Inverse folding.
């Protein structure tokens, strides 16, 4: 990374750290919390879905398990940070349990298999915990937004940092090799299964932590809600909008997702999902590399303008 | 006890026919074009609503309305294909599956919310003069509506089978499935084959939607459930074998229905999903599919 990039990222983080001191409106803080949550989710999903190329439709399971463990432990009186960690670890345990059988499935079969797994948890949790996870009164009166803000900011920074480190490591190269051509990767000594499992475990861990944050952030929700397939679809949508397989793509996608949805809800109300769906399809059709590819296309176009190719023969020469 | 189980079995078979019909539609499209249309459940929902409005506005019997419902779905299918899916034809297989899946998710959002704004979130069902009537055979109840669902599904399946096996166009479709490049070399218009298969899929979704309306009810958010069921049944049945797909649907329906009898609570879908995953991990090619490679 160039030093200019490091400085600007550090500045951005400092600004984000100072933000709650300046902003007093709760709705703005909430919006930032949502952005951080979705950045963390999209970046986690991208480690498995983008780097390793395994399209999962079951990440709601990891998110839900993280939320479930955290909420139950926290209400039981455990401090919040260990509870969230436990949520992340539970998600990893589940990921490793399902990992080996799931990875026998390739491509679209993997996607449908993970969706089925997540649905099993979704329905079962709805049966076992049919109630609303409401906060006890003493926790409710102590509720403050600022610690939630810092928790999600920290989580987003850590996940993006880990994604960056992975993308620049031998491990990341191995993952991408598995994505591009599994047989070729195997023949070069890259164990496809080991890389997929590792990507799944890392991805599930951070998704579980995000679920723990969700349980800490939301005052009351149905226990079943974080297991809803909507979460898996949102993660996939954000990553593809931003640009899959890149570090910056999921961040851009998540910011776009939250800000655009918020904007549409305010301005077009009940039509917001129709317009959002249309926007998403337009991105898939015309920007297959995601929003991040605009930058690459623009840079290429600029270069072409600055230096016209000299090998092109102009017709005048033949006159 | 035995009679109760047998009754559940019957209901399971009748429910499974609907799963099978939904799955044959999605499998027809996927098998030929490799388009994974995850908005299939939403098309099914549109078929249900079309039948509902034909019945409640013009008092047209839901079964007589089937041709109109099919025409409506064919129009929608043609628009979707021309606007969106036709752009995906030339992609490599993996890319095609992924991109059509993403487009399908976008469509899901759009269609579901259009239905929500136009027709509200209410459950819509219809009651005909023969709703609730049944005939009894060996002490077991057979509701007319559900039996009609099974019969219509079988008719669709049989017609599709004959079409694919006995007509020239059907032969062209099968050739395209085997090798689209070779097919286009011998003069088959692959684009036309793709369009046709997509339209057959949407039409089947429309029929399934009408049958779901008369046996249960429809609402804007039902699509996800039916897409998931159709996908599961398609994978269970294995690729390239519609009869197998249909029987996988019947199997899933039966398992769910019998489970609901033995296990209290809302676990019938869980058992169906578990069996699906188990079969998938031992036979990734599906129950009735042939092994690839």
């Amino acid at each position: 990374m160039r030093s200019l990039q490091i400085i600007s990222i550090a500045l951005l983080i400092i600004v984000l750290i100072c933000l709650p001191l300046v902003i007093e409106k709760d709705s703005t803080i909430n919006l930032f919390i949502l952005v951080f949550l979705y950045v963390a989710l999209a970046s986690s999903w991208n480690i498995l879905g983008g780097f390793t190329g395994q399209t999962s439709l079951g990440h709601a399971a990891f998110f839900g398990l993280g939320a479930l463990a955290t909420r139950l432990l926290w209400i039981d009186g455990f401090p919040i940070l260990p509870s969230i960690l436990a949520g992340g670890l539970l998600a990893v345990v589940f990921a490793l349990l399902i990992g080996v059988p799931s990875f026998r499935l390739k491509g679209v079969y993997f996607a449908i298999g993970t969706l089925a797994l997540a649905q099993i948890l979704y329905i079962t949790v709805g049966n076992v915990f049919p109630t609303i996870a409401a906060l006890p009164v003493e926790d409710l009166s102590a509720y403050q937004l600022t610690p939630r803000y810092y928790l999600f900011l920290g989580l987003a920074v850590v996940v993006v940092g880990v994604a960056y480190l992975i993308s620049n490591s031998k491990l990341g190269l191995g993952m991408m090799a598995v994505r591009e051509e599994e047989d070729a990767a195997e023949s070069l000594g890259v164990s496809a299964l080991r890389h997929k499992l590792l990507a799944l475990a890392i991805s599930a861990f951070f998704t579980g932590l995000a679920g723990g944050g969700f349980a800490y952030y939301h005052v009351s929700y149905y226990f079943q809600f974080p297991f809803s397939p909507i979460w898996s679809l949102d993660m996939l949508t954000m990553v593809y909008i931003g640009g899959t397989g890149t570090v910056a793509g999921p961040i851009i996608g998540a910011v776009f997702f939250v800000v655009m949805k918020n904007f549409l809800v305010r301005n077009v109300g009940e039509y917001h999902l129709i317009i959002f769906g249309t926007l998403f399809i337009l991105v898939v059709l015309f920007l297959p590399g995601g929003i991040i590819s605009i930058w690459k296309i623009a840079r290429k176009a600029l270069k072409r303008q600055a230096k016209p190719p000299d090998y092109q023969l102009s017709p005048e020469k033949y006159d | 006890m035995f009679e109760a189980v047998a009754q559940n079995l019957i209901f399971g078979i009748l429910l499974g026919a609907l799963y099978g019909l939904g799955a044959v539609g999605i499998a027809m499209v996927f098998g030929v074009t490799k388009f994974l249309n995850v908005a299939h459940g939403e098309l099914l929902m549109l078929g249900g609503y079309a039948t509902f409005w034909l019945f409640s506005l013009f008092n047209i019997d839901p079964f007589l309305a089937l041709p109109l419902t099919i025409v409506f779905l064919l129009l929608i299918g043609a628009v979707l294909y021309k606007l969106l899916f036709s752009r995906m034809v030339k992609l490599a297989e993996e890319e095609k599956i992924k991109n059509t899946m993403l487009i399908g998710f976008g469509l899901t959002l759009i269609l579901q919310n259009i239905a929500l704004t136009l027709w509200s979130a209410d459950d819509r069902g219809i009651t005909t003069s023969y709703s609730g009537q049944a005939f009894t055979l060996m002490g077991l109840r057979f509701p007319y509506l559900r039996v009609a669902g099974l019969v219509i599904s079988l008719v669709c399946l049989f017609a599709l089978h004959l079409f694919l096996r006995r007509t020239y166009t059907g032969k062209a479709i099968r050739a395209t499935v085997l090798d689209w490049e070779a097919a286009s070399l011998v003069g088959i218009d692959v684009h036309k084959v793709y369009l046709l298969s997509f339209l057959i899929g949407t039409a089947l979704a429309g029929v399934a939607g009408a049958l779901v309306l008369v046996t249960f009810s429809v609402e804007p958010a039902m699509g996800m459930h039916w897409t998931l069921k159709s996908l599961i049944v398609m994978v269970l049945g294995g690729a390239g074998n519609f009869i197998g797909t249909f029987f996988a649907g019947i199997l899933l329906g039966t398992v769910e229905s019998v489970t609901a009898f033995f296990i209290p609570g809302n676990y019938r879908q869980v058992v169906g999903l578990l069996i699906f995953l188990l079969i998938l991990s031992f036979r990734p090619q599906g129950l009735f599919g042939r092994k690839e490679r």
